[in-house]
Structures are given as structure tokens and as C-alpha cells.
């Protein structure tokens, strides 16, 4: 299937943004705009309504990407990964993410995986870890990040938060919502996170629903 104009603009704007930032280039290197495309069926999630409410002009540095996400919103395959049991019903309703570039497509490269995620105001993304090394790059809003190596840090547009392989980390949306790039690099970019229960007493190995 032909790629839509909305998805192409989203990919091009994200690639330009990543290639324009030395900190992102330092993390994953330059990304080509010329990527093979395979269509993915869109997937609806409650989070799309919240994404539509983002006021792009409030974030001039990333406005182009935000406009593209809102325009492409209902063409995207939004996922929630975790179960209600793992993160609670409120989290599932106000969170979601989609793959844009990487080994899972829709735009293919093997070495890096670029996802975009949204977390609603006051959500608590409890402690988790994963094999892939990760860079969070806020595109709108901000959040309080914690990791074993970095400690606590508020990050907003213009910042980058890097987690090493299997470094434990959590995020609290204490400053309102967060929309961010999550960039993964490493050997196996398909390995899912392990997450602790909300009271910290249990550990869940996350099984992603694959189609
Ligand atoms: Fe993570």
C-alpha cells in the first residue's frame, strides 16, 4: 500500500528533528529519510482523544511534529502493551504509544527503534526496565523522571533522558501530560519491559500482544 501524506510528513519531521539535535545524534546516529514502508492497520485507543487536545503552538520547537501526529492520529497503530492488572485501569485509558521507525516498521531500520508515547496528567509510570538502551525526548509537556544512574530530573522539550540497558527507571506525570519520543537501541529491540507492580511487591514480565 502507498504510504499516506500524513505518515510521510510525520516520519520526515521526526527524522529531521532527530538529525538536528547533537544529543540524539550522539545516542543513535544519523537516520535516513529514505526508509522502506509497510502499512500497519490503525488501532484505536482512548488516548487518541487526549492527543488531539495538545495545543501544538505552545511548543514551537516541536510544533511541526505535533501537528503531524494530530493529523495522522487515526492512521496510527496505538498500543498499550501493559495489562490493566499490571498498571491499573486509569493508566490504560490515558496512555498509549506507537512504533514509527524501526525493525517493527512502519518505516524500517534495524539498528534503532523510534516510538512515540503519551502519558496523561498525574499518571505514575511505575518502575520498569528493559534490555534496550533508551532515550526519552519530550515533544510536548514534561514529567519527573527517575533512574538508578540519573536520580530524579524534570525533563521537558529540549531535554533528553538516557537509560542504560536494564537500568531501572520510572516516570511521574506531576507537571501535566507528557508526549515523548522513546528511542531504543541495542541488540534485540523487540524485548519487552519488565515492570514492578504498583505497590512494588511483584514483578511482571510483559508479554506484548502481537498480530
Ligand atoms: Fe523505558
Task: Provide an overview of this structure.
With 211 residues, this protein is of the alpha+beta class. It has a single domain, classed as Sandwich (Jelly Rolls), CATH 2.60.120.10. The protein has six helices and twelve strands. The strands form two sheets. Strands 2, 4, 5, 6, 7, 8, 9, 10, 11 and 12 form a ten-stranded antiparallel β-sheet that branches. Strands 1-3 form a two-stranded antiparallel ribbon. A hairpin with a 6-residue loop joins β11 and β12. α1 runs antiparallel to α4. The longest helix is centred in the first third of the chain and has 16 residues. The chain starts with a helix and ends in a 6-residue tail after the last strand. The mean pLDDT is 92. Fe (ii) ion (FE2) binds next to loops.
Oligomerization state? single chain
Number of strands: 12
Give the termini separation: 18 Å
Number of domains: 1
Amino acid at each position: 500500500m502507498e504510504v499516506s501524506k500524513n505518515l510521510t510528513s510525520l516520519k520526515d519531521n521526526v527524522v529531521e528533528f532527530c538529525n538536528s539535535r547533537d544529543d540524539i545524534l550522539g545516542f543513535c546516529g544519523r537516520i535516513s529519510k529514505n526508509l522502506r514502508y509497510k502499512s500497519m492497520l490503525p488501532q484505536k485507543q482512548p488516548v487518541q482523544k487526549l492527543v488531539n487536545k495538545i495545543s501544538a503552538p505552545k511548543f514551537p520547537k516541536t510544533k511541526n511534529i505535533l501537528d503531524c501526529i494530530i493529523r495522522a492520529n487515526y492512521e496510527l497503530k496505538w498500543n498499550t502493551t501493559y495489562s490493566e492488572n499490571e498498571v491499573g485501569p486509569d493508566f490504560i485509558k490515558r496512555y498509549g504509544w506507537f512504533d514509527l521507525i524501526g525493525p517493527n516498521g512502519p518505516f524500517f531500520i534495524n539498528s534503532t527503534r523510534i516510538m512515540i508515547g503519551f502519558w496523561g496528567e498525574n499518571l505514575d509510570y511505575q518502575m520498569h526496565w528493559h534490555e534496550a538502551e533508551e532515550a526519552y525526548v519530550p515533544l510536548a509537556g514534561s514529567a519527573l523522571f527517575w533512574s538508578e544512574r540519573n536520580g530524579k530530573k524534570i525533563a521537558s522539550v529540549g531535554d533528553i533522558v538516557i537509560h542504560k540497558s536494564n537500568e531501572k527507571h520510572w516516570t511521574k506525570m506531576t507537571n501535566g501530560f507528557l508526549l515523548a519520543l522513546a528511542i531504543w537501541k541495542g541488540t534485540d529491540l523487540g524485548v519487552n519491559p519488565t515492570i514492578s507492580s504498583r505497590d512494588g511487591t511483584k514483578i511482571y514480565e510483559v508479554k506484548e500482544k502481537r498480530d
